[in-house]
Specification:
about 280 residues; mainly beta; four-stranded antiparallel β-sheet; about 5% helix
């Protein structure tokens, strides 16, 4: 009988410097524990962040090990360096830094004398023109609104391969982060991008729904594209009705580590849930 190991990855998503927490549990093909490095820098004034953990055993779900005392250095293509300090166990922040679109960034992480490196290019931002909401029905307690669909309008950049990730917040709390866009068939077009919200969640009149459009590079897109397929996979079961483990998400880290380093640019817009007329 095949033994399937389980890797628990913690994705902490930031909105307005400190945002909410999103925990994602994945069944991955990880036999031995591996270093998992999740790192971001963007073009907003905030502290860039790195989370370092180690994958754990399938039979110990949620028992991921945070890694402390790492050395982390961010290097810009102009040679400027930024040091990260440990904020909490396995969570590291830099001093407030504004990333520069069209710059390439290198991140070096040293854990137990082993060096891990990743490089990420920050694309020019796609700017949200507007966000609108389509409501299919309103009802239930307190005027709960359900079956919501967001429409995000923006101009795709011509002659540029645009990749984007959309994160959605309800009153500042993350509700979705797995909506991806690639302009393979829409290069240079004016885009009306639909995002379907979770129908099992309550959305009330007066709630503010915020959309964060992250313009990402292809490496980051590939990572989240595989991750999204993992989360929505219904590939059946293996022996003993164990789930069949999908492939590990792609990574731009070297040295047999997992995770991602994303340098992305940001555009944000919001819409208010109003009473249906």
């Amino acid at each position: 009988m095949n033994i399937i190991k389980k890797l628990t990855l913690l994705f902490l998503s930031l909105l307005f410097i400190f945002g909410c927490e999103e925990v994602i549990e994945l069944d991955l093909k990880t036999v031995e524990p591996k270093i998992v490095i999740e790192a971001i820098i963007n073009n907003e004034v905030n502290a860039s962040k790195v989370i370092i953990s180690r994958s754990t055993d399938y039979y110990k779900p949620g028992k991921y090990q945070k890694i402390s005392d790492a050395i982390i250095i961010l290097t810009e293509e102009n040679g400027n360096e930024t040091i990260f300090n440990e904020f909490d166990s396995g969570i590291y922040f830099s001093e407030p830094i504004v990333g520069e679109p069209s710059f390439t960034y290198n991140l070096k992480v040293i854990v137990d004398s082993i060096e891990y490196n990743a490089t990420s290019f920050m694309p020019e931002p796609i700017i949200i023109d507007s966000v609108r909401m389509r409501k299919n029905d309103v009802g239930g307690r307190g005027g709960v609104t359900s079956n919501l669909r967001l429409q995000v309008y923006f101009q795709d950049k011509e002659d540029v391969k645009d990749f984007a990730r959309f994160k959605v917040y309800q009153n500042g709390n993350l509700v979705s982060g797995h909506n991806l866009y690639f302009d393979r068939l829409t290069n240079g077009n004016y885009i009306n991008f639909p995002i379907f919200l979770d129908s099992n969640r309550d959305y009330l009149e007066g709630d503010v729904i915020t959309v964060e459009l992250q313009t990402i590079n292809k490496v980051t897109f590939d990572y989240f594209n595989v991750l999204t397929k993992v989360l929505t996979s219904n590939t059946g079961s293996g022996p003993g009705n164990d789930p069949v483990a999908p492939a590990n998400p792609n990574t731009n880290w070297n040295n047999n580590s997992l995770g991602y380093f994303s340098a992305y640019s940001v555009s944000v817009d919001s819409v208010l849930i109003e009473k249906k007329k």
